[in-house]
């Protein structure tokens, strides 16, 4: 694992605000990721995030916690939260920033704990990679979520990309290929999943979940709470 994302976040925290983390795709021009948002203080968090955070209850798992902005907020409220990330540099960064409970682990290797809330924001369901992977994630979530627990996630409808670009042929248009570039180093290609609301709802129903869409912003980003 090249962990260019984790390295870029760590360097930014250490004061390097000039080195760009570039995100390449297979259909258009690359973008530079804005890293400052990963370090928002509680009073800087956007309304979108606050709506999601208000639903967190009980024992919370912050999946793909990155720099720990959500975990730190929940922790400041006295809530029981565990920050999980596969990135070694993100784990090191969160430790420095004061996140108390951290797991350096792939979520699929997490088997011996159960949570009341699974929290997966900032397009985090992209870790599924594709439709088949999302079904796998839902299956695993059932194993680590308490019976009456909730799974909070967000995503977006990226169908507009089909109108602008010739996307690579995929099972679903929301399966997008990316690679990072940082300080001259190119990472490996990976697939990131975006689901429109209709597709999310239908897959959840197939897998025995109920998707509740609780908020949609003007740009089409939406929040959903999944229940078993």
Describe this structure in words.
The chain has 228 residues and is an alpha/beta fold. The protein has one domain (4-12, 50-216): 3-Layer(aba) Sandwich (Rossmann fold). Helices cover 29% and strands 29% of the residues. The strands form 2 sheets. The protein has a 7-stranded mixed sheet, with helices on both faces. Strands 1, 2, 8, 9 and 10 form a 5-stranded antiparallel sheet that branches. The longest helix is centred in the middle third of the chain and has 14 residues, at 131-144.
The CATH superfamily is known as: Vaccinia Virus protein VP39
First-to-last CA distance? 33 Å
Q: Report the top-level CATH class.
A: Alpha Beta
User: What is the residue-averaged pLDDT?
Assistant: 95
Strand content: 25-35%
Poorly predicted runs are none
Number of helices: 7
Major sheet strand order: 5-4-3-6-7-12-11
Oligomeric status of the shown chains? single chain
Major pleated sheet? 7 strands, mixed
Give the helix proportion (percent range): 25-40%
The Cα radius of gyration reads: 17 Å
Topology pattern, helix = H, strand = E:
HEEHEHEHEEHEHEEEHEE
CATH topology: Rossmann fold
The general outline is globular
CATH architecture: 3-Layer(aba) Sandwich
Q: State the total count of DSSP E strands.
A: 12
Estimated structural class:
alpha/beta
Number of domains: 1
